[in-house]
Design brief:
alpha/beta; Rossmann fold; 4 domains; 5-stranded parallel sheet; 18 helices; about 50% helix
Length: about 525
């Protein structure tokens, strides 16, 4: 982004300004996807200012000196904020540089809690977070927070004496704003806001990212925080361009390349099926009028093939007849854009469409109760590891002990909570690069690569000991459970099927030998 802004200051052309806007847009999406709300706000503010100067007329550039000077100051401020955030770095993705250097596996994720004195809710939440691998520091309202490394998240709980409960008081909002400025990369929660639009908007303006009402359960907050742990880098977007004009293709490819979107273009729809099979695009950008057949006809063909029934299709055409545009959408299109196009708007539309489609696919790969990978997705990822030549792969199969008796004695809602708690524990204490999945019922699968089986055994044993002490509430009090596990290493079992089968055999031995233990698979 800096390089492209400097190029614009040097040459002052419309193309250079468009390149800068594209780089800024990509940066905004990147920090948003990584869960860095403070930086995302700063990027969005600069992007809004930049887009105000995006025009189709080359003669509008270079910008007036005063305008360029103001934008330059905002660019400098943003880059300084990014530099500060990298120094604080609450561990990008929170992974040790060398996964075999320590069997602690992940750095403890720091959470700050701003709460009133003697709050039983805060004490219970702190205890739960500690179980799931977080280091919690509590502070009182009005007390200055420490300097140094910013936390993973900051949780604000209402202080009725300080006027921050029903009517969000000025002092409380000012403290939130100070924390927001102090912790630009942290996620800020406010738990206990009343069902009031004014209160919720005031908190968000002060810097709160997520507001939760007083009737929200602790489980909802834990789930939101643990979901943040699993943020992963997205794959680059792939767009297939179907356009008969070589000039239009060149313009589109340049606009999308500026936004880190991979493209492949064909100039005739007759080759679309081969292109779909080979390129496997996330989205098809379709011209409407082409020599051999129309874009609508090509779309109707794709919609009849099971593999591409859900692939997003966006029309980019000079067609201005609203009736024809509506008919094109009715017959299988997802969106319609007209030429000439704004390159930033085109890229943003395509990215948003692809992201929504990926989110739907992602939901189909995750277990609804725990949020972990489901059976099929976990095995697919493990297959991909083995096929790619990954080394040091270890697989563990985990099963909750005597789970049927939990359901029979306390009911299925309590059983679901026990399953969810183990899922959260695994998610909180393992790395985001590890495979963590619900294999079925009360059984889980965990896999790690580039590690030693002794290290993984040590980590899983600590998780097993923690789960045995974790209280699960039910109407009659609390219960505690345990799990058994079997662990197998790739050095002894080279294929996915052999690894899982060996870990499963070790799990069965652990259950036969008394449960609440982890056993290694016996080498062949």
């Amino acid at each position: 982004m800096r390089m492209r802004w400097d190029a614009y200051l040097l040459r002052g052309t419309q193309d250079d300004f468009s390149d800068f806007a594209a780089a800024l847009n990509g940066l905004t999406e990147h920090v948003t996807r990584l869960g860095l709300p403070g930086l995302a706000r700063q990027c969005s503010a600069l992007e809004a200012e930049t887009l105000a100067h995006m025009t189709q007329r080359p003669e509008d550039h270079p910008l007036a000196k005063e305008t360029a000077r103001a934008l330059n100051g905002e660019v400098d401020a943003l880059i300084a904020a990014i530099a500060a955030a990298r120094k604080q770095d609450p561990s990008a993705k929170h992974i040790e540089d060398d996964p075999t250097r320590t069997v602690e596996w992940v750095k403890p994720r720091s959470v700050w809690m701003v709460a009133p004195k003697d709050s039983s809710w805060a004490a219970g939440l702190a205890e739960q977070l500690a179980f799931y691998g977080f280091r919690v520091n509590e502070y009182r309202w009005g007390v200055a927070l420490p300097e140094g490394e910013a936390p993973f998240a900051v949780i604000f709980l209402p202080d009725s004496d300080g006027g921050v409960a029903d009517n969000i008081g000025r002092d409380g909002l000012e403290q939130v704003a100070r924390v927001r400025e102090r912790c630009p990369v942290s996620q800020l929660f406010y738990v206990g806001v009343t069902r009031s639009l004014d209160s919720m908007v005031a908190l968000m303006r002060a810097g709160i990212d997520i507001t939760m009402q007083t009737d929200d359960k602790m489980a909802a907050l834990l789930s939101r925080i643990l979901d943040m742990v699993q943020i992963r880098e997205q794959e680059r977007f792939r767009v297939l361009i179907v356009e008969d004009s070589k000039v239009a293709v060149a313009m589109i490819k340049r606009a999308l390349a500026n936004h880190s979107i991979d493209t492949h273009a064909i100039t005739s729809p007759s080759g679309i099926l081969d292109a779909m099979d080979q390129f496997q695009p996330d989205l098809v950008l379709m011209d409407m009028h082409m020599p051999t057949c129309t874009g609508v006809e090509a779309t109707r063909v794709l919609r009849q093939l099971p593999s591409y029934q859900a692939t997003p299709i966006v029309y980019l055409s000079g067609e201005t007849d609203i009736g024809l545009q509506v008919e094109a959408l009715r017959l299988g299109g997802d969106h319609f854009m007209t030429k000439p196009f704004n390159p930033v708007l085109l890229a943003a539309t395509l990215k948003t469409t692809v992201e929504r489609h990926r989110e739907m696919r992602r939901a189909s790969r995750h277990d609804g109760l725990t949020g972990l990978l489901n059976h099929t997705a976990a095995k697919t990822e493990l297959d991909a590891w083995i096929a790619s030549g990954a080394t040091g792969v270890c697989v563990a199969m985990i099963d909750i002990d005597h789970f049927k008796s939990v359901n029979d004695t306390y009911g299925h809602p309590v059983g679901d909570q026990v399953i969810r708690s183990l899922g959260w524990l695994l998610k909180g204490r393992l790395r985001v690069t590890d495979i963590v999945g619900r294999y079925g019922g009360e059984e889980f699968i965990v896999a790690a690569r580039d590690t030693k089986v002794t290290d993984m055994r040590s980590v899983l044993d600590r998780i097993r000991a923690a789960f045995a002490t974790l209280p699960h509430a039910h109407p009659g009090g609390v219960l505690r459970g345990s799990f058994s596990a079997g662990l197998a290493a790739q050095v002894d079992y080279p294929s996915t099927a052999e690894l899982i089968a060996a870990a499963d055999d070790a799990l069965l031995r652990a259950k036969r030998e008394g449960r609440n233990r982890l056993l290694l698979a016996e080498p062949v």
